[in-house]
Amino acid sequence: MSVVTKKISMDDLLSKNDIKVLEVGDVLDGTIISTKKNEITIDLGSNGFGIISKKEINSIRTIPAGDKVTVSVIDPEMDNGQVLLSTRKASKDKGWDEIQRLYESQETINITPYDANRGGLLVELEGIRGFLPVSQLSAVHYPRVNGADKEEILQKLNRLTKEVLKVRVLDINRKDNKLIFSEREATKEDMQNKFTDLKIGDEIDGVVTGVIDFGAFVNVDGIEGLIHISEISWERVDDPKNYLKVGDKIKAKIIAIDKDRLSLSLKQMTKDPWMEQIKAYKKGEIVKGKVTRITPFGAFVQLSSSVEALVHVSEMSDDESIDPEKIFRLNEIKEFKVIDIDEDNRKIALSLKDATPKKKTSKSKV
């Protein structure tokens, strides 16, 4: 009687014993058997034994025998038949998996940058280094400076390396080791909710975050506001830094609401002194004023602290080729005739040629 034997393949053996053929990059759970000076041995169960690479021993030397560790395969079969393992790579792989989950769920997390460069902030999450670009900072933390002063930008960014920031994962590419964060995305919904509670005409409290040539930026409860130079004071403003500085707490009025920014006015928190002082002038009368600016088309004359008027070149002389700089000197005081008052547009027109010397009943408002 012959006995028929069934030939068992390697796949059958592996399937029967639930043994997996290990490949580079596989992540496994193992148990520490022993820790030596140059070697840590790991029990991989049905997959045999493995050792941790020498360069990683210091990072796990304190873990006692019998404890579980997660490892990844560096070399599935060395010359001695053992598996070369890594805890660092396993940790990094797990880190990428967690970051991928955060990216897909758009979960908001807290991070603290560990360094900065001129382009943004350096961040580490789950053992993986990433980047938070300047362009992705919220309005509160965006470094507002004059022009493109890179050193001042870097100084402002360095101050953020000790702060906890709320961010979302904006972009991820494990293959290219790319990880980008965004604070703007993390605060977008909150900002939108705050915008719904605001309307033009509202008076708000804010803190000045930057003063530049054309105005000042203001933090309004996390929303960015801008006070244009023309809205700082009823007076003529040549340099916003003479009126505001970083850190100033102010009250301002909302005059426009853009997509993600408020336009604010500081001067509209008070009455327009022009409207009060203009009442002292009447069309046709002779007044005295101080020349403050001379241009090819005319000269500007200060009549009072808040009222400035224009003498057009055509009202200087009957000579059409007259040069304003030959008639006026800065800061000199002359007599003029008021020829028009436009309250709606806050303008007064003066005439030099119609102001005759014989009229001595002039009013001085300087």
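That was protein one. Protein two is written in the same sequence-then-structure order:
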Amino acid sequence: MVYDPAMSSADDIPRRPRAVLADDERLMREQLRARLTEVWPELDIVAEARNGLEAVSLVEQHRPDIVFLDIRMPGLTGVDAARQIAQLPPPQDAGPDDDLLPEIVFITAYDQYAVEAFEQGVVDYVLKPADRERLQLTAQRLRARLDARRRGEAALETPAQPLQQLLHQLSARLHPGQAAPYLKWIQANVGQTIQMIAVDEVLFFVSDEKYTRVQTAQVEALIRKPIKELVDELDPQQFWQIHRSSLVNVKAISGITRDFRGRQIVSVRGHPEKLEVSRSYTGLFKGM
């Protein structure tokens, strides 16, 4: 069969990958942009940020596939920006399968942070000054992960730990002595009363637009605190984020299955409700 361009549709043509760069040093941004253009001409750099706050805003505006974040930036570090980006709500026109986080690449002159970030699950890192050969490897890995996304598959390189665990650890290293203790108790509304619920007893948290449901084996309660705040206040080794709107107690997970659409579903010990795992977090459960 002879290929006829008139028979093809826009859906058949892969969209160019899009990226946002964030670095407080203009020369570093220019160098990274130039090197990326050399090793990955198809990459569309849609915006550049001068600090972490700008990076979060630009990511929310442009919804890129990839974000290059300098770890050390004034106002909001790259790690803290990554934590905020990971909690951005999906765009209003997003479908049920579009709840994907951008791939994160850290830019750093501090090798100890970068190596730890890469080894524990963040896509990759770039050491300053950007080396052409090293960027080629980064581009190769990112292409593979984006191709896996388009096929609806988990990335080949799955995280060794949840993203929020890694970002908590890196943030603690960047801000020694500033970390607040994790929550031990939740003050929540149960009917017409306020109860104190031990965090260890919580099976999972699920948010809607206004409230977050706190579910234990015996009690269902409501709090006015969104998931994006709870992520920073709960021990990330105890509570894993499996969706933008849900956190689950790791000790309460009884099993992982797949539904007829291939989505991962978490069964919770002591409760009949099933929790969906969004595509951004499927790497948490390897081999499923």
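The first strand starts at residue 18 and ends at 22. Keep this in mind for the problem set.
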